[in-house]
Amino acid sequence: MNRIASDGLRIALTLVVAASLSALTLAAFAQSAAPATSPAAAGDATRGKALYQGCAACHAIDENDVGPRHRGVVGRRAGTLTDYNYSPALKASGLTWDAATLDRWLVNPSALVPGTKMFFRIDDPQSRADIIAYLKEQK
Ligand code: HEC
After folding, report:
1. What's domain 45-137's superfamily in CATH?
2. Where along the chain do its domains lie?
3. CB-ligand 1 contact for 134 (6 Å cutoff)
4. Which one-letter DSSP state was computed for residue 37?
5. 129 within 8 A of 39, measured Cβ to Cβ
6. Which residue's CA lies nearest to atom 39 of ligand 1?
7. How far is Cα 37 from Cα 118, in angstroms, rounded to an integer?
8. Per residue in 77-118, pLDDT tens?
């Protein structure tokens, strides 16, 4: 390759690199400009399934354990499985499990239902949304 051609190539490469760098900068900017995720953010059920391993210390989808089984929990009135021994507090709570009540429950069960016997919290809003998305699929 003669010198002029190789200089030309070098300039062309430099331009390509510069162009892709500015594309990256733009992408990063677009991400930071996106609205912050709220607690009601859409959950990722696949991630929720993995996170459910934390719940599985006490719960299963189809069997009662330390905690009640979870199949059909979204849409169910709290404390109403007849074959699980709930705390009087949860039975009397009058709650129905939906995305909003489950989110508050997972923030701090004792704050939502003083006297409950579940002591387990999920601090990260996105993780709560992901777990709730997974529970919604366990119909
Ligand atoms: C250390 C044990 C433990 C862990 C871990 C745990 N729970 Fe519980 N959970 C319980 C107990 C015990 C109850 C019954 C509470 C009561 O009767 O007051 C319960 C009740 C519930 C209920 C009410 C169900 C109904 O039928 O009304 C929901 C919903 C629930 N848990 C969700 C979860 C989720 C989701 C996780 C994981 C993020 C989780 N729990 C982790 C022990 C646990």
Report:
1. Cytochrome c-like domain (1.10.760.10)
2. 1-34, 45-137
3. no
4. P
5. yes
6. 55
7. 27
8. 999 999 999 999 999 999 999 999 999 999 999 999 999 999
